[in-house]
Amino acid sequence: MPSSRLTALVITTVVALPVYAQDTASSKPTASSTPPAAEPQVKVDGFLQLWYVDGHTITNAHDSYRVRRAFVRVDGSISPRVHWRVSIDAAKALSLTKSSTVVGDSTVLSDASVDERSRMLQDAAISITVAPTLRFDVGQQLIPLSYEGVALTTKVETVQRTMFIEERARGGTLGDIRDVGATAIGSLVNDYVTYQVGLFNDMGDSQNQVDANDQKATIGRVVVRVPGLSALQLGGSGGFEGATKVTDRRERAGGEGQFRTGWLTLRSEVMGARDGNTRRLGYYGLGAIRPRPDVELVGRWDYWDPDLHNESGPTTVAERQITAGGSYFIETAATRLSANFVRSFFPSRQLSPTSELLLGLHVVW
């Protein structure tokens, strides 16, 4: 072999060996190598509620189709102990907050602005787990009031929630409402006791905005499960927001009890409230049976008084409701068709009884 070829072969071998060794080493794990960081995980879910309402009531003037909720939630993990979530309800319609003044002998509109609570943004919070049985949620979130106030929509057997939540136009804001704050969520005694307690700007008045005063609302809920009787749970919730003026003071207090098995649900709640000088009271009893996995029959007796000391008009009169109906689950619990017949009575007899038929299509993904 000519000397020039021999020289080239030696040089090529000397250069190639370190490169081969490097490639081989990089392809095999070593004790000092660290696994790559996990990619952040993001999940999208939500639910869609479509209603048909037949019947004229205090808060429903016409027969109508309605997109009740179009809820989309995105949540993800920043690390094993830090999670985030953001959700919107695209079905919400903007409403106005109006103020008036007296000019001469007339009352005139003095100002109007968008009610921030009617904007689409719902949840915007970060969860930090500090122990296996304790985490903190910071941001905009549901305030922990009542069972139906924090329950997933799939866990509510009727088309509408109880009146002390649904009757927003008549003071029914005692659950299923959001505010900005920080909440501790945890459990005790082998998970037989679970709790949520938080400090919020308000009782749901400052959703999507800053606090309008220096006072903060303390709100909490505790649930106890009976050892040896897993179907039974008892609980209570409440809140307090002090103020320099009695008219600005807010109080909430309520109790709940539920017995649930694979085929039967029995539940009752009571919730009282004080908003300034106005006192409110609502309670209900509910029973549901599931003769088949895809069929649920439900009945509920419901009472709501938006002002215990005033029966002067539609916004203040007490109301009793009887609801009867059922749901058919299509393939899974994620999709259901529901029909409820609702009959309303007014103890003061200022208004005539009303009837309403609610048809709902509910899809969860």
Low-confidence segments, ≥5 residues, pLDDT <50? Answer: 1-33
SSE sequence, one letter per element:
HEEEEEEEHHEEEEEEEEEEE
Distance between the ends: 74 Å
Number of strands: 18
Mean pLDDT: 87
The helix content is: under 10%
Q: What share of the residues does DSSP label as strand, in percent?
A: over 45%
Assign the CATH superfamily.
Answer: Porin
Structure classification = mainly beta
Concise description?
The protein is mainly beta and 365 residues long.
Describe the SSE topology.
Blueprint: H1 3-27, E1 42-54, E2 64-79, E3 82-89, E4 96-103, E5 106-114, E6 121-131, E7 134-142, H2 147-150, H3 163-166, E8 178-188, E9 193-200, E10 217-226, E11 229-241, E12 250-260, E13 264-275, E14 278-292, E15 295-305, E16 319-329, E17 335-345, E18 354-364
Antiparallel strand pairs: 1-2, 1-18, 2-3, 3-6, 4-5, 6-7, 7-8, 8-9, 9-10, 10-11, 11-12, 12-13, 13-14, 14-15, 15-16, 16-17, 17-18
Task: Give a written overview of the molecule.
It is a single chain. With 365 residues, this protein is mainly β. The protein has one domain (40-93, 112-364): Porin, CATH 2.40.160. It contains 3 helices and 18 strands. A 16-stranded antiparallel barrel has the order 1-2-3-6-7-8-9-10-11-12-13-14-15-16-17-18. The chain has a two-stranded antiparallel sheet with strand order 4-5. The protein starts with a helix and ends with a strand.
